[in-house]
Amino acid sequence: MSTLPDVALPDAPLHNMSQARTCEPSESPLKERGKEPGKEQRVSLPGKTNEKSVREPVIRAENFCLYYASKQAVDHVSMEIERGEVTAIIGPSGCGKSSFLRSINRMNDLIPGTRAEGLLSVGDRDVYDKRIDLVMLRRRVGMVFQRPNPFPKSIFDNIAYGPRLQGIRRRSLLNDIIEESLRSAALWNEVKDFLWKSALALSGGQQQRLCIARALATRPGVLLMDEPCSALDPIASGKIEELIVSLRKRYTIVIVTHNMQQAARISDRTAFFCLGKLIEYDETSRIFTSPANEQTEAYVTGRFG
Ligand SMILES: Nc1ncnc2c1ncn2[C@@H]1O[C@H](COP(=O)(O)OP(=O)(O)OP(=O)(O)O)[C@@H](O)[C@H]1O
Ligand SMILES: [Mg+2]
């Protein structure tokens, strides 16, 4: 079995498990370093998270740094992101939010000259381990960008793209995955009668939910979202927020946002970044009501940034 986070869409068959096995290194790199990933500790979590008594980190960063050539974008960030929670990353422009987010599924690799230091893991896998299968990593850690980016194909083909790459051809199985993904992305009722229509004919908000459905179709455990509402009007934005809340628990979601109200509304924990550093990371209610750090307080109250 894969050691990456639990897959969602539990009714779909475990179609990629054989591939998952082939890319597993024989030893977990974290175990090699003497750590025990996923070890549960009893803690009491106030606010939104108080229904959960067991901490279960899925993403861990330890002194993680990211450079674009000589430019350091992420500076010794250490944090643990909990399974099934929504974690918001906030901070002024250029503080490394997107760089950190893109590191989690190694999207930064697409930018020449990037270099990572320290540890960043998903499940018990060091994502910068040379043996990691990047295709598998990005299937399990899906990403949604600021601007909706559907392929110039039908709605059906957009969602089927990932599963087809995984070798799924059977029409009945594809139909099931497409329906389940669109339902999870709260788009099914709006598009079920014209799945063969071009995805480009959808509104911006629908296109963004389509992109979320496309990410869900590859059965990720983790969903990364980089300002997913910033190109949308308030109504479409509200629908995406509702969707994120509905996906919580089934998925681990990390969202970058400039919208403080949005972070406060939808996230369990909030991380405040500034100049590449993680300044404060705590339950969202605490970050927005009684932050420990003066810089955080100045930022969340609009006095800087
Ligand atoms: N491709 C790149 N090449 C060189 N430097 C980059 C690149 N992308 C980002 N940077 C630099 O890295 C730093 C962090 O950028 P990043 O995009 O992660 O910030 P951000 O917090 O997401 O900002 P914003 O809120 O404006 O999206 C910035 O100084 C930025 O100029
Ligand atoms: Mg950014």
- Tell me which ligands are bound: adenosine-5'-triphosphate, magnesium ion
Largest sheet: 6 strands, mixed
Strand order of the largest sheet: 8-9-10-5-11-12
If you compute it from the alpha carbons, what radius of gyration comes out, rounded to the nearest whole angstrom? 19 Å
Domain unit count: 1
CATH class: Alpha Beta
Summed over residues and divided by their number, the pLDDT gives a mean of 85
**Second CATH tier, the architecture:** 3-Layer(aba) Sandwich
How do the SSEs run, as a string of H and E? HHEEEEEHEEHEHHHHEHEHEEHH
Distance between the termini: 45 Å
Task: Please name the fourth-level CATH homologous superfamily.
Answer: P-loop containing nucleotide triphosphate hydrolases
User: How would you describe the shape?
Assistant: globular
Supply the helix-strand structural class.
Answer: alpha/beta
Please give the share of residues in helix: 25-40%
CATH topology heading: Rossmann fold
Spans of at least 5 consecutive residues whose pLDDT stays below 50 are 1-50
Report the strand count: 12
Q: Could you tell me the strand content as a percent range?
A: 15-25%
Total helices: the number is 12
Commentary on this structure:
The protein contains 12 helices and 12 strands. The protein has about 300 residues and is of the alpha/beta class. It has one domain (about 55-300): P-loop containing nucleotide triphosphate hydrolases (Rossmann fold), CATH 3.40.50. The strands form 3 sheets. It has a 6-stranded mixed β-sheet with strand order 8-9-10-5-11-12, sandwiched between helices. Strand 9, helix 9 and strand 10 (about 250-255) form a beta-alpha-beta unit. The longest helix is centred in the middle third of the chain and has 14 residues, at about 170-185. Residues about 1-50 have low confidence and may be disordered. Magnesium ion binds near residues 97, 226 and 256.
